[in-house]
Structures are given as C-alpha cells and as structure tokens.
Design a protein that fits this description.
Blueprint lengths: L1 E13 L5 H18 L1 E10 L5 E2 L5 E2 L3 E2 L8 E5 L10 H12 L3 E5 L3 H6 L7 E3 L5 H7 L4 E3 L3 E4 L2 E4 L4 H14 L1 H10 L16 H5 L4 H12 L7 H7 L4 H12 L3 H19 L4 H7 L5 H12 L3 H6 L21
Helix pairs in contact: 1-5, 1-6, 4-11, 5-6
Amino acid sequence: MRTTDSGRRFGFLMVPKFSLGAFSSAIEPLRLANYVSGETLYEWRTVSLDGDAVASSAGVRVAADLSIESSERLSTVFVCGGIETHLFEDKRLANWLRQIERRGTSIGALCTGSHVLARLGLLDGYRCTIHWENLPGFVEDFPDIEVKEDIFVIDRNRYTCAGGMAACDMMLSFINRHHGYELAAAVSEGLIAERIRGEEDHQRMALRLRLAVSQPKLLSGINIMSDNIEAPLSQTELASEIGLSTRQLERLFLKYLNCTPSRYYLEMRLNRARALLQQTCMSVTNVALATGFVSASHFSKSYRQHFGHAPRETKRLTGAARPAWAMEDALPASGSA
C-alpha cells in the first residue's frame, strides 16, 4: 500500500465515557477506503488529555496515540462524545482546541461532542447537529447556535454528527468529496450499508415506523403535540387542528395506543422535562415552564407520579445518566394507562 500526497490525517479526541459505536463507525470507513484503494488516503490518531488510555461508555479502554501536548499536526480533530459529555470541562482541552483551530485545523464532533465545542464558542456562527435525544437540552443551553436534526452537518471547517452510524455516513461523505463516488460506494458495500445517507437525512425513523401505526389523523395529532410542548393545546384545540371531534380523537388514541390523548401528551411533556433536567443546568421551575406546566408544584407532582421520584432527584443523579440511545424514547410507549 502506497501513501499518496492527498492523504488526510484525522485526530479523534476521546473524552471519558465516549461512545465506542460512533468512534468505530468513524474510523472503519477510513480504513476500508485505504484497503479498497490500495493507498494510504487517510491516517488517524487517537488522542487523550494525557496520552493515557480512555474508557468508553461500554467500559472498553482505547489506547491513545498522542496526548494534547503532542506537536504532531492533524488536519481535522473530532471530539468524541458520549455519556455525560455535557458535564465535561477541562481547561487544558479548551486551550488546545482553540490553539489548533487558530493554526487552521478543522474541528468536528461525534455524538454529544458538540456540547464541548459549543461551550468553547467554536460553533458560534456555524450550523451543527447532535444526537436527537440531546437536542432539547442543547437548544436550551445554546439558543443562538443553529442546530439541525440532520444525521450530520458540514459547515465550512466544522463537522458534526449525531453519533452512532451517522459517523459512518459523514466519513462516507468525506470519501465521496475527496476521492469520488465510486470509492465511497465500494466502502459502503464493504460495510454492508445499502446506501450512502446524505447530510439532509433525518436522524429518527418516521413516526409511523416507530409506532407501527399509519393512521394519518393520529400521526398528525402526535406531531402537533410534539410541536407544542411549551404551550400545550387543549384536547378541543388539538381535535380541531386535525379536523376531528374530541370524542373521535379519544377513540383513535384508545384504539391504536391504548391511552387517552391527554395522557399521551402529558407523558411526552414529562419525557422532555426529564431530558432537560439531565442535560442542562436549568432550574426545576424553568424546566416546568419549558414543558408547559403552570407551576413548579404541579410539575413536581406530575413528575413524581410518572417517574417515581422528584425532579430534583433526577438532577442529583445526572452524573449517572444513561447514554442518549439507551434512554426511553421521547414518545410514550403504547399501552400507557
């Protein structure tokens, strides 16, 4: 295998409890691009704060090739996020990222790594994305940053992806841009990926697939609920929006989801509230207002009845929060009573 002059050198900065899935999904397409082409088109280095191995969220420790003190030049550095990345701060890392950015290094993030970049101002004026479960909290913390629900976003010299297999899609996009569609397609086939998803693809499955329901009025109602979390609609208003009577609306929810519209809506708001408590520094009162509750006391009572503990307990346990993809879906499960 020969090295070409067009080689690109990536750095993957691993923060504690980073997502092993997103990390490996980013590197494997690069390896296959080299293998298929017979040339070293890409090189990569794993990086940690001190040059020591870092434990992923799965408990697997990954060795680091470099510390942030290394003088090796990298064309692009990705911050690899995962569990609790929204809480991770380190002055040395902040200084290093700002320093290499000033030297012309492109900056990116996998999964929740966007939190690190946003706190440092490295996403100011750029479009970005983050895992769908972390979107509500990210928007609350960084209201001036344009965040998209796409699987990955490339905006000039900023590269962000939602994590998981989206990291693979972003790298396939790089391969396509750098070396053409034929190589990107060959790599995709090698990964048993049926197609190369584009930047505009959405992260989540279509609602009808997630719920295994195709009733259009029901799906329309759920989408309207999702768009009106902070200022919830009454059941009468919701029914009117989709052209049904309140009784017809109730029958639809009972038939397909085995719960009333009001119960479904409440659980949707409470799940959003839990995400905000886990992922932001918002007070319980502000979370209550952001999810449509008229008072903190009413919110706390509803929250305790649904989750079995008070909102403040969720905030206290934030340090032990599960990863985004292991949490319950933002939509209530069918069969709720």
